[in-house]
Amino acid sequence: MKKYLLLLISIAFLLSSCKEKVNSPVSAGDNVYRYYCGEKDGFKVWIVDGALIRKNIFNEFVYGGNDQRYPFVPLNEIWIDNSISSEEYETTLAHEINERNLMARFGMTYFDAHDSSLALELVMRRDYLKVSSVHESILPRVSPIDFDSTQEIEDLPDMIKLKNIYRVPLRFVSGVKVWVVDGYAVRRDIYPDFGFSGNDRAYHFIPENEIWIDGSITCEETEYSIALELKEREKMSHGMLYDSAYVEAVKITDKLRAANQELILKQKPVIKTNPIVRDTGIKIQ
């Protein structure tokens, strides 16, 4: 009888432990939040630590998530996996918002909402390709040199035509157009030392009033790179030499990182839920 009671107690303890593990918050040292992107269509958009989520919460979390598909995502938040590149950010964000709204407003299944969102991505990608191709077709030839007239690929002509460089038109900021570009192609065909980002004051091959963001960097670094290029470009436009302008620009990104860290520390721990996923929307609005 004692053995039987001990067995029941052990089973109850194990069940209790499993339940506690499923519903317990991620520890404070394992904060999944990485960068706050602001609001989009009424949702708070966060870039999150995808690897940590796959390790501690749900091992199939990829690209992004929303509060309808994943109950562990707080209400009215959209999560973007920090593993994805800057080139994938806009389509992923649009996908998650569309998927969430279809599930929430119409009670649509995840699979149907997901397929609809993939179709939306396809439209966006084709539109980006069209816009990029048109943009390149009307650009004048550019010089493959940097601010101090260094040409790193010696067999290039003095003036070149940009081709298959542009990927995603991001936004206008202070009269400057920000583009995601194919960084690999830039390094292969124009300037091997191009990394992360650049602007038209630092590189003569970047057209007037443009900032380029390397499509291979993570989405988490995109906003820091944009801020750096804007400040560096501003300083160089007022006569500051590149090296000094770069140092000043890095100071801006340091401040942004510190401010972002303060926001992260204010976030509540993420709660592991049971179930981890929903297959059908719950029509909350």
Query: Structural class of the secondary elements?
Result: alpha/beta
Based on Cα principal axes, name the global outline. globular
Give the number of domains.
2
Helix content: 40-55%
Q: Strand count, sense and closure of the main sheet?
A: 4 strands, mixed
Ends distance: 54 Å
Reading the helices and strands in chain order gives HEEHEEHHEEHEEHH
Give me the count of strands.
8
Overall average pLDDT: 91
What is the CA-atom radius of gyration, in angstroms? 24 Å
Given as residue ranges, the uncertain stretches (5+ residues, pLDDT < 50) are 1-22
**How much β-strand is present in the residues?**
15-25%
Write out the strand line-up for the largest beta sheet, numbering strands in chain order.
Answer: 1-2-4-3
Number of helices: 7
Spell out the blueprint of helices and strands.
Elements lengths: L1 H22 L9 E8 L2 E6 L1 H7 L7 E3 L10 E5 L7 H18 L3 H29 L27 E8 L2 E6 L1 H7 L7 E3 L10 E5 L4 H19 L4 H24 L20
Parallel strand pairs: 2-4, 6-8
Antiparallel strand pairs: 1-2, 3-4, 5-6, 7-8
Helix pairs in contact: 3-4, 6-7
Keywords summarizing the entry:
single chain, 285 residues, alpha/beta, four-stranded mixed β-sheet, 7 helices, globular
